[in-house]
Amino acid sequence: MTIMLYELAGRDAARPFSPHCWKTVMSLAHKGLEFERSAVPFTGVPEVENRFGKTVPVLRDGDKVISDSFDIALYLEETYPDRPTLFGGEGGVALSRFMEAWSASQIHTTIGGRLLLDIHAMLEPQDQAYFRESREARFGRPLEDVVEAGAERIREFGAKLEPLRLMLKRQPFIGGEGPLFADYIVFGAFQWARVCSAEELLEPDDPVSLWFDRCLDLHAGIGRSVAAAA
């Protein structure tokens, strides 16, 4: 039975942008599994799989339905142990837990506010209304003010990546010689920015940029299947 992935997209269904959904796309490709992708707008998420959850990604594999990118990765690892590993053992799971927390606190909080208007512009009108209302309630101010304030955070972004940069000077991937789910966690954040915004976050020769390019080339270039924002 075909594996189905429900992922977030805007007006153009061929441009999925959610960082969390991209983690799952890369995980499925890493495992070499065939899957179909179903684009879901923000206002359509509550209807996925008979109101299974409040967020995507959601994965259906036969009669099994799972949400949350980390839980999906754990499911894939357990269900398809004969396929390439996403974790390389318990230590890799622990590493990925750390990278999840680090990415959320250092990368998402830095670039997320900066992307709000870019994301808003990608949506259909009904989703724009939902997005503006929900995000302005979250941030406590208009989207335009959040984006303007985000400019200062972007200027500090390079310094926040120094631990990752130092690691990637010594090895090609966070997982070592090859990628693991820990790589896909951070990749998802950079892919989010790449798909939504034309703003350059890093210099092309930055070790983190070079690592991101290597990730884009993985699994027959599935990351490049969506062009960068122009």
TrEMBL record:
It holds the Pfam family GST_N_2. The lineage of its organism: Bacteria, Pseudomonadati, Pseudomonadota, Alphaproteobacteria, Hyphomicrobiales. PROSITE patterns: GST_NTER. This is Glutathione S-transferase family protein. PANTHER family: MALEYLACETOACETATE ISOMERASE. Residues 8-84 form the GST N-terminal domain. InterPro entries: Glutathione-S-Trfase_C_sf, Glutathione_S-Trfase_N, GST_UstS-like_C, Thioredoxin-like_sf. It comes from the Bacteria.
